[in-house]
Known about the structure:
The protein has 2 helices and 14 strands, in the order ααββββββββββββββ. By secondary structure, the chain is of the alpha+beta class. It has 2 domains: about 1-35; about 55-195, Lipopolysaccharide (LPS) transport protein A like domain (lipopolysaccharide transport protein A fold, Sandwich), CATH 2.60.450. Strands 1, 2, 3, 4, 5, 6, 7, 8, 9, 10, 11, 12, 13 and 14 form a 14-stranded antiparallel sheet that branches. Strand 12 and strand 13 (about 185-190) form a beta hairpin. The chain is rod-shaped, with a radius of gyration of 33 Å.
Amino acid sequence: xxxSDNLYSLWVGRAKIILPLCALALLSTLFLFARxxxxxxxxxxxxxxxxxxxxxxxxxxxxxxxxxxxxxxISARSARPLADRADAADLDDLRMRMxxxxxxxxxxxxxxxxxxxxxxxxxxxxxxxxxxxxGYVMETSGLTVTLDTGTAISDGFxxxxxxxxxxxxxxxxxxADASNTGHQMLFTDGVRxxxxxxx
Length: 199
C-alpha cells in the first residue's frame, strides 16, 4: 500500500515539473514559427492617436421644414464638429434635397460643406451642382442655404443648362415664389443667354 502511494506521489511530483515545461515549449513554438502577414499595414502611431481623438459621425442626415412648407433633407458621407463651435459641423460629400409643396424639387451636391445649428444655415464649397425638377442644371463654386426660409444664394459665377439653352450669370438666388408652392430663380450680375430653339 505504501509502495503505490509513493509511486503516485512520485508521478504527481514529476507531473508538476513536466507539464509546465511542455506548456512552455508549446508557447515558444508559437513565437518561433509565427509569420507576419504578407500585407502588414504600417499605421503611424501619430495617425492612430489622431483617429482616436477625432470625433466623426458617418452618414449623418438632417431634415426639417422651411417657413414656406418645403421639406429639406441634408446628408453627407461624414460630419465632424468644429473645434471652436460645438453646434456646427464640417461635412464631406454633402447632398441636399428640397421638396416644395407644389411638387418642384431642388437637389444640390457639394464636395465639402458646413452646417451651422444656431443660424440654421448650410454652406457648400468646392464644385457645387444644382439640379431642379424643371430641367435646370447649374454649377458654381459655393452656395449658402438658409434652412428657415429655403433661400439659396450662390457665392459667385455659375453656368446654367436650361431647357431652352445655356446661361451664365454672376449669381443666382432661389427663393419661395408668391404662392409659397415652389421656388423662383433670380439670375443677376451679368446674365448672358444662348437660346437654343426647340424642334
